[in-house]
Design brief:
Radius of gyration: 24 Å
Keywords: 4Fe-4S, Carbohydrate metabolism, Gluconate utilization, Iron, Iron-sulfur, Lyase, Metal-binding
Number of helices: 24
InterPro entries: 6-phosphgluc_deHydtase, Dihydro-acid_dehy_C, DiOHA_6PGluconate_deHydtase_CS, ILV_EDD_C, ILV_EDD_N, IlvD/EDD_N
Mean pLDDT: 94
Number of strands: 14
Largest sheet: 8 strands, mixed
Strand order of the largest sheet: 7-8-12-11-10-9-13-14
Number of domains: 2
Oligomer: single chain
EC number: 4.2.1.12
GO biological process, one term: D-gluconate metabolic process
CATH class of the largest domain: Alpha Beta
Pathway: Carbohydrate metabolism; Entner-Doudoroff pathway
CATH topology of the largest domain: Rossmann fold
Length: 615
């Protein structure tokens, strides 16, 4: 192991020791209870299994067969989740073949950030993560399950399911992905049309045509955003059947992998057996570090600097942005996938995908290879490639057989994926920024090297709509650091500000030195404009962004890791932070369900603490 990875892991272990010990004690206490059907009263048991076919009732009660709870994020609003419609039938069929029973324990809400981007619904997006975690708890709290399968792919859904599952840490759990859509219009071509539209060079018709050619079918969006970063991290944590992340929803291999998820969760379910792997024990400090390294090595979503802090906390583990920053210094950047390059996730998978990344990082001592996985095999086996082989000639009618084979040693495309010995960069895709404007993060993997340092006068906005209006009026045609404040978790739920990417990219394309500084989020789609995001403490909490005035010189230095307002210290100290205008507070509090999330806004922790609402 690289000494820095060891040091960070040990620091996390020591920091977390009291919390983790208490968590594991609760997990052990839950494991030691009698199984649900034996522990509960007869009326409770009758209610729990009333709708099961008679044979399944007998199996689960009399024969004490394992009962798998399925928590699904299925809906047909999300292209990535639409394929889940048929998964329960496949899961039930496979479980019955193996003598087990299955119940869909519950469904959780799953919203599409692509639909709500730039609109009020996006203000519910971050909090939907904890709502999903609570929904997972509601589903599993019926407490008659011996294991769980978790069906979800997209942005807040996977972290929410994982947080919820970790609160039932006594259960073995396997995540079941659905896969990406086929490649459509390239991400770079789509971005060009967006920039042209922002400048008025094309109309709405051309823009809609381009967007529809990019987002055109079932499966995840094909850029390397939060949804696809989720899948990379789950593979690195050993919570998937190996190689399951990026197989297309309707490929024959997808159903085979789903059936294998049933087999694996049953294999790790029997308490007392050597294979028993409850998720609360499996997800330890090493596994969390592996996820962090996988994120950094692939230039993944900035959202996970919030989400995985919350995930770790759910397992009794404490991490912060300094841990990410230290790991980033020794993590090689191995992947170039849009927005960090021109390739999409299908090209990433074809070049070697998550398996190639995991193998390279384990072999380079950047990942802990000695962790448990749901496959029951070492983490390096997570690098192997799933495939279907024809049945034996004697049983030609049998279904093809799922097996794994070693991936090619070489990358299938070094423009997309490189070995650890020849990375795109010696450092990972994230950088911590500190200074008199607070603590923030920047995704540097997609930012041109000559834009890692930007110094320019500030232009301050309290809403993203105000920025867009200033852009359309030609007021930003100069070197400028755009400050968008009152976008943090307490202000309005910390929406993604991805709608700002096209106008800022246009300004940068004109040769101006441009940067964004905000207490809001961007997303996994953070692009080529340098953006200091998640600034903490946020403006509504009295954070220093509230002190910035139009014209203040701002220096964003991703090389030195600083974010500073270059204002006389005495003047800076004397300034009173701006307050959220009352009319904006009113807008943020009402409409499209925002009233229901008022309590979450009041009690949420900071972005660096995971924007957690349940502590």
């Amino acid at each position: 192991m690289h000494p820095t990875v060891e040091r960070v892991t040990e620091r996390i272990r020591q920091r977390s020791a009291p919390l983790r010990s208490a968590y594991l004690a609760r997990v052990q206490a839950a494991i030691e209870r009698p199984r649900g059907a034996d522990r509960m009263g007869c009326a409770n048991v009758a209610h729990a299994f009333a709708a099961l076919p008679g044979s399944d009732k007998f199996r689960v009660v009399a024969e004490k067969a394992p009962n798998i709870g399925v928590v699904t994020a299925y809906n047909d609003m999300l292209s990535a989740h639409q394929p889940y419609e048929g998964f329960p039938a496949v899961i039930r069929d496979e479980a019955r073949r193996l003598g087990a029973t299955v119940q869909v324990a519950g469904g959780v809400p799953a919203m599409c950030d692509g639909v709500t981007q730039g609109y009020p619904g996006m203000e519910l997006s971050l909090f939907s993560r904890d709502t999903i975690a609570m929904g997972t708890a509601v589903a599993l709290t019926h407490d008659v399950f011996d294991a769980a399968l978790l069906l979800g792919v997209c942005d807040k859904i996977v972290p929410g399911l994982l947080i919820g599952a970790l609160h039932f840490g006594h259960l073995p759990c396997v995540f079941v992905p659905a896969g990406p859509m086929s490649s459509g219009l390239s991400n770079s071509a789509k971005a060009k049309v967006r920039e042209d539209y922002a400048q008025g060079l094309v109309g709405r018709g051309e823009l809609l045509e381009a967007e529809s050619a990019a987002y055109h079918g079932a499966g995840t969006c094909t850029f390397y955003g939060t949804a696809n970063s989720n899948q990379m991290l789950l593979e690195a944590m050993g919570l998937h059947v190996p190689g399951a992340a990026f197989v297309h929803p309707h490929a024959p291999l997808r159903e085979a992998l789903t059936r294998e998820a049933v087999r694996r969760v049953l294999a790790i379910t029997a308490s007392g057996s050597p294979e028993f792997r409850p998720i609360g024990r499996l997800v330890d400090e090493r596994v969390i570090v592996n996820a962090m390294v996988a994120l950094l090595a692939t230039g993944g979503s900035t959202n996970h600097l919030i989400h995985w802090v919350a995930v770790a906390r759910a397992a009794g583990i404490l991490i912060d942005w300094s841990d990410f920053a230290e790991l980033s210094h020794v993590t090689p950047l191995l992947a170039r996938v849009y927005p960090n390059g021109s390739a999409d996730v299908n090209q990433f998978e074809a070049a070697g995908g998550p398996g190639y990344v995991i193998r390279e990082l384990v072999d380079a001592g950047r990942m802990h290879g000695d962790v448990d996985t749901v496959s029951g095999r070492p983490l390096r086996a997570q690098s192997e490639q799933p495939a279907l082989a024809a049945a034996e000639a004697a049983d030609a009618a049998a279904a093809p057989v799922l097996h794994w084979r070693p991936r090619p040693e070489a990358s299938g495309d070094e423009a997309v994926l490189r070995p650890a010995a020849r990375p795109f960069s010696a450092h990972g895709g994230m950088q911590l920024l500190t200074g008199n404007l607070g603590r923030s993060v920047i995704k540097v993997s997609s930012v041109p090297d000559d834009r890692h340092v930007v110094e320019a006068p500030a232009r301050v906005f309290d809403t993203q709509e105000a920025l867009q209006q200033a852009f359309k009026a030609g007021e930003l045609n100069r070197d400028v650091v755009v400050v968008v404040r009152f976008q943090g978790p307490r202000s309005n739920g910390m929406p993604e500000l991805h709608k700002l990417t096209p106008p800022l990219a246009v300004l940068q394309g004109k040769g101006f030195r441009v940067a964004l500084v905000t207490d809001g989020r961007m997303s996994g789609a953070s692009g080529k404009v340098p953006a200091a995001i998640h600034v903490s403490p946020e403006a509504l909490a009295g954070g220093p962004l509230g002190k910035v005035r139009d014209g203040d010189p701002i220096r964003l230095d991703a090389v030195a890791g600083t974010l500073e307002a270059l204002v006389d210290p005495a003047e800076w100290a004397a300034r009173t932070p701006a307050v959220l205008p009352p009319e904006l507070a009113e807008v943020n509090a009402h409409g499209l369900g925002r009233e229901l999330f008022g309590g979450l806004r009041r009690h949420v922790t900071t972005a660096e603490e995971g924007a957690v609402t349940w502590l």
